[in-house]
Amino acid sequence: MTKFLEILALLIILQEIISAETLDINVALAIMYLVLAVYKEIKNLCK
Questions:
Q1: For the chain, what are the domain ranges?
Q2: What is the pTM of this model?
Q3: Res 20: pLDDT
Q4: Contacts of residue 11, Cβ cutoff 8 Å, sequence gap at least 6
C-alpha cells in the first residue's frame, strides 16, 4: 500500500510540473523517465 501512495505522490508532483508549463527539452525527458518508472512500478504491483 505504501508503494501505491508513493506512486500517487509522484503523479501529483508530475502534474504540478506539467501545469507549471516550464517545459524545456530536459524537463520533458525527465518527466518521460518518471512516467516510465511509475508505469513499471504499477505493473509490478499488479502482478
A1: 2-45
A2: 0.47
A3: 62
A4: 38
